[in-house]
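Here's my example:
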Amino acid sequence: MRLKQVSLTAAISVLAGLTTATVCLSSANAWADSTAALPLSHYSHMLVDPIHQHIFFSSGAGNSTVLVTDFNGTAVATIDNEPGATGLTLSPDGSAVYAALYNGDAISSIDTTSLTEAHRYSTGAGSNPRSVAYASGKVWFGYGGSAQGNIGSIDTSTDPAAVTLNTVGGSSWYSAPLLAADPTAPGVLLAADQDTSPPYLERYDVSSGSPVSGVRRRLESSSNVSDMQITPDGSDVVLATGAPYYHQVFKLSDLSENGTYSSTAYPNSVAIAPDGTVAAGSYASYDKDIYIYGAHTSTPINTYDFGNATLATAGLAWDPDGSKLFAVTTDVYGANPTLHVLSNPAAAASTLTLTGPTTGVPSRQLTLNGALASAAAVPAGQHVQVSRVDPVNPSGIALPDAVTDTNGAFTVTDTPTTAGETSYRVSYAGDSKHLAATASYTVKVAKLATAMTLTAPATSGRTAALTVTGTLNSGPYPSGQTVQITKKDLAHTSGYSLGAATVGTDGSFTVHDTPQIGGANTYTVSYPGDDAHQAATASATVQVSRTATPLSLTTNASSYAYGATATVTSHLGTTYNGRTVSIYAQPYGGKKALIKTGTVDSRGNLVASYKLTRNTTFTASFAGDYRYAPATATRTAYDHVKVTESLSGYYTSTYYGSTLYRVYHHTAAEQVNAAVTPNKAGQCLMFRVQQYYSSAWHTRTTSPCYALSSTSTGAAKLTLSNAINGKFRMAAEYVHSSKDNTNLSTWGSWQYFTVKQ
């Protein structure tokens, strides 16, 4: 698999009489990157040992191997019998790696010199430790299964080592919390939910040897925490949570929000270099996998995309000097882990541009103007290597280096020696703060530029003969020259040859054809060039008529209850060889999304289902076929809100027939509570009271509009002193704002009550 690094800047400009070419903005970085398949059946966590320049990899629950490699991913040692090794942490002196053994109910201490297990500390049967951190002279570990999460500690300074469980009581954590600590934040231990959403994040003071809760925060808009790391200045913690789709930053002091790093769905990894550079990773199958940021900056320096592979959870780590980023990818099952070594990920993208004349003459001097730019400032005096490639020097010949001025500008002066295409190539080697860059610019020496024009009818009938005429400029042309014609249509999307046409000495030619396939027929004509003329290509498209076919779209109702499922049916009429229809849904104010595509049934129908939460426009689309034209149809379905009601203040309940009535004392104040879903804060909520008499319900009062609260709720109170022995019912109605077209006005259900002396 090829790793793609996406550069964030590029410059292409056109000046009067000049053209510009800019290419390969970050090639040197890509050259320096490497990958290594890891001999593990599964990946769990990674830890960098800066002293010995090793990387430790745990293989997770159900496995028993800890792999040790060098910084290139070459295996150095395999440590077996580490059942369920998951979380890893390094002792302050770098002598030991502590591994949480999920299936071994223990914490393992691995000697970083001998690469063997030195000690194993039992944490008790069924404890299942998963995470581990070192703070205030102790090893801390998160352990416990469902509804049993807690934090334990190990004091390795005693003999035997003292293992303490239940250090934070029994109700703080649903399952084993994820832990984080850093020497830059002495006495601080962070814990977070890794199995529940929304999760809690808590800061403990462990300087006394026992956890003392400092701040506990519920991350309401987040899903479970996959990874977190304290910043090198000890002031913040950066979290990777499955949602929201960015990396969150919180102050260690009070766990208040302190910024974000934009990433994508679904954040699962974070690593912070010693200089504060942040690598924010996500489980993103169809988007960038890693975003590199300077500390507290909003624009990524670089991004990385691993293609079909996905970044593993907790799959990022930096080398000690921040010059390399280690990233582990796996397949969709978490297997086949691969280590990617990314060199200089914090180096800013650089661009080279080169401009000059479009044509040249042998033996005459020409001058090209170039510029070196980068997202990071580039000092003057940078050397840019220059080479020329021409027909005599197909492998290139070196020219004197160009040197940049204070603005990054430079010039290249050369005298071409031969006719033909001459390419000038410039390259900048880059440094620790700037990525390498290359650019090239081609001067056409001696040969005349050739332009081809085609004239074709805009439309034509199917099976009707048509003519395409063309002209090559810069004549005359040698006799016997030809152009090659290819055509693409719906039946031949890759194109097929229509043969050759003779070019007259004035550069004219004629193409004859009788199209059999409707739709766009694109004719591409190519001239290979001759001794005096360059090659040229042009295309012309003729829209060949197709028969219209009916396409309709219906729903099984015109309006729906909130959350109800609409049945959407598209009917396609007669076609030739295409029977595929696509159905899209676009909720009001939302994006249009494909909900079903497929071949219609024998009756011409394609049926889709869609759950409505707001007014939605459905669109059916037929792309057309060889003989029938594309068609679309639309249908709008309207959606109610959900009005939930309840009564309060009653002292008992009774039934009249099968209807439940709440019973109030005449001195009580009845309150009806209403909630509207989705949130309609600030919009209208009305209440209506009816009384039953003369064998019918009669409206007694209807309230004016009340504005729904910020939580989309409202309530109304009634005094009941004059309602003794009466039967009443009350309901709430949501009345949509004239500015809100997302849902229909909706009545709630009747709430029945009676009043006693």
